[in-house]
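Need residues for this backbone.
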């Protein structure tokens, strides 16, 4: 990897990026310490009893740092009561104060807790969406203003030995940053560096950094760029990873895993928080699943080094592939399902993968989650298949029948021997460790081959990425379906690991399809849903409404879980729309820029509705806000009846 694009120690050999150690109470972060897991309370910070009880549930679930919001001075002062009660009950877990907009609250909190989190987008600025062309002198004057506002907090942190997280949020970049750098990973990184340079000037180094976004691709690019910029400036501060406003349930887990796991694969990250619209103690096991996977990762099989990466890690540029039938080119990534282990395949089998057969009418219903290909091994299909479905058979079975919309799966030896091929589509299966120049040169001459690449390497994502880089360097444009096999693991682990392994490749624009297989309890329906969920989270194939939903916290002005479920029940049929559901104003308007519509708490029982980042209706009573949101969607022509 060239120094210009370097963001980790190696793209092929697992090794954690070496950060400096930061002391946070009695739980040090970075350096040689393990990757820490943390979460944030959802209670009212002024409710000491509720906050303490919830903190204890989090700690007993394995939470190593407890973050608590302090939106004003009174909440910051009450952190002392919360801390005292936790210590009295024998819990010494470090506490972190989460601060937005109120520097004086941060200064109070820094005297009490072990760490404060500030947001550089709103610590010294109020977002007005004013875009100004700054001269260099004007920009320098803005930095001087920030310095004056920021120095008192640095002084308190140095005096009390308090650590600080400079936590950039994609959704709350300042107007100054947006004006000069735009709504980009570059702007996110510069937002943090402005504050970080002030800390360095003051010889204050107890710093942790984060680059959060509800868009996993933006999040991954921002962290990579941050490491690159830090190394260029001789810095190595530890990193807190997270996908903000990831949402709930399966979607939230897949999105979080795709963003966090992609970075962990390259050894980036010192602490993680999985942000789900659920009780915070439920976040901890998910975080632990992600982190524990890398305990012995360095023992993986050797992968050839990459000297110069053909992928720009800081910008999304999808690999250009040829079109073979309906795979590659401008097509969305295709989803394939494994039916080869099923003894008898009938019409009802296809119900699990998005196809409903109506016996009375002899017709097929096709859902938005209908997979594109089924792999049936040596089996045969004895009924009329849906018109959008392709069937892949082992070559020895296919050659006996050659039915319509049936295609062969061949291996490398068969391919090089020159067996008879289907004129339109042939699936060439290979382990990426077995690829050589002879195969690549042959592929460049054939227009009816799609690769199905697999790996047994413990560090499989890196091995498969290495293969894509070889194709790019050879200018081989053969489409590629990414395959991963999983043994007997839990459904939750399967969800998280596949999102990391395959989603991490789609983040870099690699892949024309997805093929997941798993031994054990997962049903065809579950595997199919996860496949579509990974493509949705990587924004490469949109099959459903996307909800950008923040985890609840003490700032939240309504029941987020209940409200998210309500809005989802009424809008989940609006395929392709992004709807933001925000508990408060902190990240609301900014994240609305990534969502088509927004539902933001602005007061007790009051909601503001947004179109992109523009507020359309203010102070809507909550009891009618869901219908008001539907009316807004209708007014803009984006509503369809369910």
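Answer:
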């Amino acid at each position: 990897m060239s120094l210009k694009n370097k963001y980790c120690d190696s793209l092929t050999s697992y090794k954690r990026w070496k950060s400096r150690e930061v002391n946070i109470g009695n739980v040090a972060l970075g350096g040689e310490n393990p990757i820490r897991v943390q979460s944030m309370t959802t209670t009212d910070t002024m409710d000491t009893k509720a906050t303490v009880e919830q903190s204890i549930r989090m700690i007993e679930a394995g939470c190593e740092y407890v973050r608590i919001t302090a939106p004003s001075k009174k909440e910051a002062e009450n952190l002392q009561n919360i801390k005292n009660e936790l210590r009295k009950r024998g819990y010494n877990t470090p506490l972190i104060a989460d601060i937005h907009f109120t520097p004086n609250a941060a200064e109070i909190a820094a005297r009490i807790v072990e760490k404060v989190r500030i947001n550089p987008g709103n610590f010294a600025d109020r977002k007005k969406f004013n875009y100004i062309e700054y001269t260099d002198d004007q920009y320098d004057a803005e930095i001087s203003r920030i310095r004056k506002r920021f120095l008192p907090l640095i002084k308190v942190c140095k005096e009390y030995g308090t650590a600080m997280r400079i936590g950039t949020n994609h959704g709350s970049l300042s107007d100054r940053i947006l004006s000069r750098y735009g709504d980009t990973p570059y702007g996110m990184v510069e937002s943090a560096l402005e504050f970080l340079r002030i800390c360095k000037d003051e010889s204050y180094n107890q710093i942790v950094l984060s680059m959060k976004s509800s868009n996993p691709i933006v999040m991954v690019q921002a962290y990579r760029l941050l490491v690159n910029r830090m190394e260029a400036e001789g810095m190595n501060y530890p990193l807190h990873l997270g996908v903000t406003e990831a949402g709930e349930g399966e979607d939230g887990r897949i999105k979080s895993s795709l963003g966090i796991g992609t970075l962990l694969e390259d050894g980036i990250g010192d602490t993680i928080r999985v942000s789900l619209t659920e009780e915070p103690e439920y976040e901890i096991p998910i975080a632990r699943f992600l982190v524990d996977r890398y305990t012995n990762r360095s023992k993986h099989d050797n992968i050839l080094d990459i000297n110069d990466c053909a992928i720009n890690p800081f910008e999304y540029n999808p690999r250009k592939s040829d079109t073979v039938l309906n795979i590659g080119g401008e097509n969305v990534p295709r989803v394939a399902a494994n039916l080869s282990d099923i003894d008898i395949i009938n019409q009802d089998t296809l119900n699990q993968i998005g196809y409903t057969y109506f016996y009375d009418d002899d017709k097929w219903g096709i859902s938005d989650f209908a997979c594109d290909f089924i792999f049936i091994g040596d089996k045969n299909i004895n009924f009329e298949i849906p018109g959008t479905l392709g069937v892949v058979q082992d070559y020895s079975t296919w050659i006996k029948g050659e039915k319509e919309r049936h295609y062969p799966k061949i291996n490398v030896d068969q391919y090089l021997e020159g067996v008879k091929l289907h004129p339109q589509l042939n699936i060439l299966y290979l382990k990426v460790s077995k690829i050589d120049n002879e195969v690549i040169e042959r592929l460049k001459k054939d227009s009816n081959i799609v690769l199905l690449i697999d790996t047994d390497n413990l560090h499989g994502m890196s091995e498969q990425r290495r293969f894509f880089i070889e194709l790019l360097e050879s200018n081989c444009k053969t489409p590629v379906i990414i395959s991963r096999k999983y043994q007997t693991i839990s459904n939750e682990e399967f969800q998280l690991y596949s999102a990391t392994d395959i989603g991490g490749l789609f983040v870099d624009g690699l892949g024309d399809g997805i093929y997941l297989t798993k031994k054990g309890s997962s049903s065809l329906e579950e595997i199919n849903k996860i496949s579509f969920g990974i493509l949705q989270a990587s924004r490469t194939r949109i099959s459903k409404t996307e909800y950008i939903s923040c985890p609840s916290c003490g700032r939240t002005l309504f029941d987020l879980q209940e409200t998210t479920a309500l809005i989802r029940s009424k809008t989940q049929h609006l395929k392709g729309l992004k709807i933001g559901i925000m508990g408060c104003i902190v990240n609301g308007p900014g994240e609305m820029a990534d969502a088509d519509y927004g539902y933001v708490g602005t007061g007790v029982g009051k909601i503001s509705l947004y179109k992109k980042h523009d507020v359309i209706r203010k102070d809507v009573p909550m009891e009618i806000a869901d219908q008001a949101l539907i009316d807004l969607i209708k007014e803009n022509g984006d509503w369809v009846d369910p």
